[in-house]
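Reading a protein record of the kind used here takes little practice once its layout is understood. An example of such a record is reproduced below.
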Amino acid sequence: MNEKLVIAGKSYSSRLLIGTGKYKDFTETKAAVDASGAEIVTIAIRRSNIGQNPNEPSLLEILPPSQYTLLPNSAGCYNAADAVRTLRLARELLEGHSLVKLEVLGDPQSLYPNVIETIAAAKILVDEGFQVMVYTSDDPIVAKHLEDIGCVAIMPLASLIGSGMGILNPWNLQLIMERVQVPVIVDAGVGTASDAAIAMELGCDGVLMNTAIAAAQHPVLMASAMKLAVEAGRFAYLAGRMPKKFYSASPSSPTENIIAPTDS
């Protein structure tokens, strides 16, 4: 029950990863991260200051690398070249930090991953020594190919980024988990705690989210709910649910030595 999440050789107690965007200020960001219990936090390099803008407050002031595993990502990139350039900048700003989240989008409307450009970028980054956690579609063939390239975690979407639609295709997620050996972390589409619990009950190794917490009416409270949901879902998966019995009931109370019914 205490089995930890292992990514690129490092162990984590929390299986919840959260983003740092869309909060009203840094104070709320820090409170939500703390309430979530997350140890890995994502940072959109194109939208967050981690030192590239010296005259602005830095996210590193509230989320220091000494306390959290920072996961710079290439959010907002639409081709391999831009994604690679962005993550090279992140490594430079974070003094050689190699763990990154690769994200190459197909269009600004759906934000669906462009798997062709994602594969191209993954090859370059892995060859350059990056430890790549990769956002991708829920295609099991693509997922296996990305693992074969050398990605350290596969991150299929549950539904579109920021949609809150939850897990729309659990079967594909299960196909991915059957085929790859690296951690499978649901990324994008989670809307509430039950979505996170379902992902974990399916056997996913973790869940990454941002909007589901940041866009809630009470983000810090939602962060706490997500922490509990991920833990509950993981425990339920490890416990092994009872089999479903369609059109067949099974009493939960004893069927022997019961009080006989009275005749009426």
Observations:
- The chain has a mean pLDDT of 91.
- The longest strand covers residues 131-136.
- Helices lie at 26-36, 80-93, 115-127, 140-149, 170-179, 193-202, 211-214, 219-239.
